[in-house]
Amino acid sequence: MTQSFKDYLDATQPDADTVVQAVRYYLAERSEDLLEEEMLEQVRSGRNAQEVDAARDELSRDPVALESAALAVLSCAWEEEGEPEKIRAAFAGAKSKLPILAIGILATVTLYGMWLLATGGVKSRKRVVQRRRDGTRVTFEEVEFYGPPPVAKLLKFFGSLGG
Fold this sequence. Notes:
Helix content is 61%, strand content 12%. It is mainly alpha-helical. It has two domains: 5-121, no CATH class; 123-150, no CATH class.
């Protein structure tokens, strides 16, 4: 039987700072160590930059919202095959060396994690339908991702939120 994320949290009892640092470590690995500005650039792509900045500022001002968002990112990622081990490692790293970081960076990282999960990290998608000579249709799809592509489970979860 596999351990749920809730069971893991109940067993380890991390504080809010550890949770936020863990999401930072986890996303650093998942995004191949993108810089804060690169994360913001990706989140802003195709969106109102003022709204993105307002969301980032809100997370910076509200530690409860920041922790909740970090928990949402980690909880969804936990459901992916192989990710619980990475998340456990992120928590271990966060507990052993809690660095002092500007809250804005942590808000950006958490916002980026939410964006990655909500969009699936899709940069562009092209779908072409062709009709064959026998009358059947075939669909071809080409998808370009920002960084490593997340799993469909995460897309389903955020899609159900009415994004």
